[in-house]
Design a protein that fits this description.
6 helices, four-stranded antiparallel β-sheet, RNA binding, alpha+beta, PsdUridine_synth_RsuA/RluB_CS, elongated, single chain, nine-stranded mixed β-sheet, Alpha-Beta Plaits, PsdUridine_synth_RsuA/RluB/E/F, Structural Genomics Hypothetical 15.5 Kd Protein In mrcA-pckA Intergenic Region, Chain A
């Protein structure tokens, strides 16, 4: 049985897109089992030692991609324009989004091939924080802060306590949720007689966008991956 293609394996391990790792391989910077391999299509024998630019590379089981989603893209494979179009060059067949962002919503969208991690990140029992920047039609109030902390009734069920932070301009607020119901942010403000004009997810658990450009995607760093697994009580 043939092993995984070298370029697909390196992309899955977070060294870049297929195009980027192809350049790395053809430049003679990748060794498999002690020997230089120049063919991106080389099939790596199971258990073979990998080195990239002279450094040993640990083979990880899963791929996790961080996308800075722009507005105008849907979190779906079946509709378009799809967020998967922004992941060109990465192996996407087994990638699933961790939750969804509406078509008009921007911000952090995580993809993973680890189904157990996906379940832990999305199940309300694990209370993984999701932080959003929200622009509102009307200024938010201290009463809104209290109401969000107590929980908002949506479809007959109260939301988990949420933190609403008011800045100098109360039409721009930050909201931290512990769950991810359908259109939750918009529905919570609607229940308070307000309207969301702009929405952006800033953080998911320990992950933030930092300086990732809008529309760009990158693999998680090993440090981010460890922090993510620790946040939901998994060993990784």
């Amino acid at each position: 049985m043939r092993g995984e293609r070298l370029d697909k394996l390196l992309a899955r391990l977070g060294l870049g897109s297929r195009k980027e790792v192809g350049w790395l391989i053809r430049s003679g910077k990748v060794r498999v089992g002690g020997g230089v391999v120049l063919d991106p299509g080389f099939h790596v024998p199971e258990g073979a030692a990998l080195e990239v630019e002279g450094r040993p590379l640990a083979v990880r089981r899963h791929l996790h991609l961080l996308l800075h989603k722009p507005a105008g893209y849907v979190t779906s494979r079946k509709e378009g324009p799809s967020v998967y179009a922004l992941l060109e060059g990465f192996p996407t067949r087994d990638l699933s989004p961790v939750g969804r962002l509406d078509k008009d919503t921007e911000g952090l969208l995580l993809f993973t091939t680890d189904g157990e991690l996906l379940h832990h990140l999305t199940h309300p029992r694990h209370k993984v924080e999701k932080r959003y920047l929200v622009h509102l039609l009307h200024p938010a109030t201290v009463a809104d802060v209290r109401a969000f902390q107590e929980g908002i009734l949506l479809s007959g069920e109260k939301t988990l306590p949420a933190r609403l932070h008011l800045g100098e301009d109360p039409t721009w607020v930050e909201l931290t949720l512990l769950e991810g119901r359908f259109h939750q942010v918009k529905r919570m403000f609607q229940a308070r007689g307000n309207q969301v004009l702009y929405l952006k997810r800033l953080a998911l658990g320990p992950l933030t966008l930092e300086d990732l450009p809008l529309g760009a995607a990158r693999p998680l760093t090993p440090e981010e991956e460890r922090a993510l697994y620790q946040a939901v009580g998994l060993g990784g």
